[in-house]
Design goal:
The structure is a single chain. 62% of the residues lie in helices and 0% in strands. The chain is mainly α and 161 residues long. It is built from 6 helices and no strands. It is found in: Mitochondrion inner membrane.
């Protein structure tokens, strides 16, 4: 049995730690959920006071955390399984998160639609290079954009007169 390319340092692939990455993204998404829950509580008409963030609209916090965790875990598992870092990973993670959003509505058509919409959006976003964090300098972008002069097939020796 040959060793997997992820174990080979010359392959250039660096596997993502799934649980650590998914937990980090899940906690960040829970923070966003707390913000959204706070807005829901502030704009709603009720008599719960500030505790309404947790008691009345607290499900939003857990839902955002679950979507973030699901997205990150799926993306990392697909990335590590395929041993490639491309837009398909983001599509798969977005599809899983969108499917989860549809299941919250208790509708399978909405779940499939959420999979297509969120997965497509994340796939396009990854394809455009926004999530990969690759920063090119202006000179690198310029060199990739402009055509380079062709190299001669045969090098001519300088003649001395």
């Amino acid at each position: 049995m040959s060793p997997s390319p992820s174990a080979d340092p010359s392959s250039g692939f660096d596997p993502k730690p799934v649980l650590q990455y998914a937990s980090t993204v899940g906690l960040q998404a829970a923070g966003v959920g707390l913000f959204v829950s706070t807005l829901q509580n502030a704009l709603g008409n009720h008599s719960k006071g500030a505790m309404g963030v947790v008691t009345r609209t607290g499900g939003t916090i857990g839902f955002f955390a679950a979507m973030g965790f699901t997205f990150a875990a799926t993306e990392a598992v697909v990335r590590n399984t395929r041993e490639q870092d491309d837009a398909l990973n983001g599509f798969a993670g977005g599809c899983a998160a969108g499917f989860l959003a549809g299941l919250r509505q208790k509708s399978l058509p909405v779940a499939f639609g959420g999979c297509a919409v969120v997965g497509g959006a994340m796939g396009i976003f990854d394809y455009s290079g926004q999530l990969s964090g690759v920063q090119e300098s202006r000179e690198e972008r310029r060199n990739k954009f402009f055509k380079k002069p062709p190299k001669p097939i045969v090098e001519l020796e300088p003649t001395s007169a």
